[in-house]
Design brief:
372 residues, alpha/beta, Dehydroquinate synthase-like, alpha domain, 6-stranded parallel beta sheet, two-stranded antiparallel sheet
Length: 372
């Protein structure tokens, strides 16, 4: 039996923050990126919240949320016992908010009334997913927590909030959307509905991401990419992901490579690997790039997939993204030394089982070495 679950109410457009005006006489915990307090972005959000609410802000958010920082947020949760949590920022901020909720509710033995997500980057899809990823800095590992109730109740997608994102954030987060879409498309849990969302994500990113990178103030392009990020989030939350993510998580944990960039480094190699193992997978990739208008309908699947791989690499060049760990600044010798750890931990990752084909250790080792 297959299931599609989309519990989040998603509000779109540059007036969607108006929804916050429904909150009244509530204890609210805002969890946001460290740089957001005292900025026009957070001021704009706070102005929508009635003064009768009690608002507390936790902004000690770090990339790849470390458990120690999360527990600082839990301490604040314990003091406030909020009725509403609002996660504001990139994936790390929304993931931190989810993790604070997870531990805070367990320790205090009560449930919050509502979880609201306001993404300020177009990438993780965390505003519509049931997952948060917690980093153990000492062990160099990432541990996902998957609970359906962690899925936000409300997501507010305001394109104006992403228009000031740094170019590198636009690039890395957008490539994460592309990875979510391509992995969900061929995942073992894929179906017609998730395919439609994933194909739209692929189309939008391939045709609009570079425009967002070069002209960040293009609101129309920003809006469609922001919404595609959400669509890709719904797709992979229902269909699953695969080995591109399971390996990328290890690049982040061991070498602090930003998540979207780690995915993008691996993505061309994983696409070629999966398509080489399954004609069905190859066909799905080919159809998706054909629907994006970037290859002709009479092109063979194999050539279409090679064209897709070339397009991904071209996107990275156009957006000044390093395509290997060495280009990112990691010594090849240090990366090679981590090979066995990377392979072992990738197999333990929660995204690993979704891959359409089951790789051997040698397969994973080969894929990893391609980005060393």
């Amino acid at each position: 039996m297959e299931k599609i679950q989309i519990p989040t109410k998603v509000f779109l457009g540059n007036d969607c923050l108006d929804w916050l005006q429904v909150l009244s006489n509530k204890k609210i915990l805002m969890v946001c990126d460290a740089f957001l307090p005292n900025t026009p972005t957070l001021d704009r959000i706070e102005k929508e919240i009635d003064d009768r609410n009690q608002v507390s802000i936790f902004s000690n958010v770090k990339p790849d949320p470390p458990l120690d920082n999360i527990m600082l947020g839990v301490e604040q949760f314990n003091k406030i016992k909020p009725e509403i949590i609002i996660g504001i920022g990139g994936g790390s901020a929304i993931d931190t908010a989810k993790a604070i909720r997870f531990f805070g509710e367990k320790l205090n033995k009560f449930k919050i009334e509502q979880f609201v997500a306001i993404p300020t980057t177009s990438g993780t899809g965390s505003e519509v997913t049931n997952t948060t990823v917690v980093s153990d800095v000492k062990k160099h590992t990432k541990a996902p927590i998957l609970k359906d109730y962690l899925t936000p109740d409300v997501a507010l997608l305001d394109p104006k909030l992403v228009m000031t994102a740094p170019k590198s954030v636009t690039a890395f987060s957008g490539l994460d959307v592309l990875t979510h879409s391509l992995e969900a498309l061929v995942s073992k849990g894929a179906n017609t509905i998730t395919d439609a969302l994933a194909e739209k994500g692929i189309d939008v990113i391939l045709n609009n991401l570079v425009e967002c990178y070069k002209h960040g103030n293009n609101e129309d392009a920003r809006k469609i990419v922001h919404e595609a990020s959400c669509a890709a989030g719904i797709a992979f939350n229902n269909a699953g992901l695969g080995i591109c993510h399971s390996l990328a998580h290890q690049l982040g944990a061991n070498f602090h490579v930003p998540h979207g960039l780690a995915c993008a480094m691996l993505l061309p190699h994983v696409v070629l690997y999966n398509s080489g193992k399954s004609e069905e997978v190859m066909h799905k990739y080919a159809i998706s790039v054909e629907k994006s208008g970037l290859v002709s309908a009479n092109m063979s699947d194999r050539i279409a997939v090679q064209r897709l791989v070339n397009i991904i690499k071209q996107l990275m060049v156009q957006m000044d993204c390093p395509q290997t760990l060495r280009a990112f600044g990691v010594k090849s010798s240090a990366a090679m030394e981590k090979t066995n750890v990377i392979v072992a931990d990738a197999k333990k990752d929660a995204t690993f089982p979704g891959n359409p084909v089951v790789p051997t250790d040698d397969d994973l080792r080969s894929l990893y070495h391609k980005v060393v």
